[in-house]
Design a protein that fits this description.
alpha+beta; three-stranded antiparallel beta sheet; 50% helix; 15% strand; elongated; binds zinc ion
Amino acid sequence: MSRRKFQSHSDVPSPVGRVDDILVQSVRVRNRTLNLLARQKFEDLSVQQTRALARRIQRRGRHAIEALFDCLFDESNPGRQRLAVTLLIEMKEAYVQNRIHQLLQRPDLPEHVRVALLAVEALGDASLQASPSIAHLSEISLDSLLQFINSFWESMEIEEIAMMWNESFLREPPPDRLRLIETLMQSARPKMLGIAYIELIYGDTTILQFLAEKLGTFNDPMAVGLLESLLEHPDLIVRTNADRSLARIRQRRALGPPPKSDLLPRDRFYRAYLASEPFSGHYSLVYAVKSPNGLIKFLVALLNRWDRGVTDCWGCVRYTAEDFDELIATMSRDFADLDQSRISKRTALTFLHRAMSLNQHRGHPLPKEFCIWANLFIKDRFTLDPRVPEFGQHCSVCGKPLRIPAHEFPWVVGEQVICPACLRRNVRCAACGGRAKPIDCFLTQAKESGRNFLEIRCPHCFEVFHLPS
Ligand SMILES: [Zn+2]
Ligand SMILES: [Zn+2]
């Protein structure tokens, strides 16, 4: 008993001991975080990986976050400095904001740290709302800020930029967004077309007026495609600016080809895979392209043949060929009960385009992520593959477009499809007069003088008769 007492007594540290412990703890956590950062190659991290790393550091608490601020001061290691900025941007928490404000008050703050902190502020989600820094962008060394931001954006693929813009900026008020877009697009760096791409889908008229003019300074052919789509815009200024910009691009082109640095790397089709559950009408399609640097980007789209078209999409960049093979192998294991096969580019594009036009016909908006990742294939020309089934068929019984409620599916019999409503409708047997629902019966497809129709076996008298339409 006395031993227990003694032990519990020793567990209460002296106040001096506690301060020391906290210091030791702080140094340990900081060092561990710095070691963790040293193991990361900034250029190789995808947006998702960066986010995961940011969460990991955040979970370790404030001392770990402080280590990131330490990195901002270390001019000798610009790679780690950039990584720290990127991670701080991902941490949308008050502690980071307060610490930035505190540091910005310091009169002896080195210029490069000031620029880095402002970049975190400008690019961080929460700060855009208050946006004291954006208002001051023109006041402080704009060039160095731009340079800093450039290297930050340059480390991303165009689709990642579009994703980031979509996730972190698109909700901000248009005037704030416009200011940031103007800053980011001062030079016509081709990757910035990722921002234009997403703004053109969802953007505000004032932003589109600016972009319609600005895109005329870009040399990549993608700018031409974007401008052409603006020629149809309801706003007169947008249309006029787009028209002038196209003329400017044509003039420049007449003088000769643009420098390579003005062009986006040309991705080439790599591979495509399809997993399907033929009866449910669901498909999961992988479409991969290879960049000139040998790395692979791909999208995974979920398609619904009956009603919804493209229902979901995600994508990834910077996969090596080995990583990609591994991913496909994992998917084959996960979808072992589905038909999975490698398909040609033409087949994949037919599936994707059929799904997209079904979205359009039935008024289901395309998922935002799909609009971004569609960049991997949307420019490519192809001829329809006749072996790909039709999307958006009509019910063979009632003739109405198939509309399938969640968790239900139609029946497929040969080339005939029957909607859930028709499956539950009572029909009368011609032979015995008994009633039955097709859903409870055995259905077959029959052919007569070149026309397909459905036959149903009566559950009462077992006679087979035509399913009336
Ligand atoms: Zn029907
Ligand atoms: Zn009958």
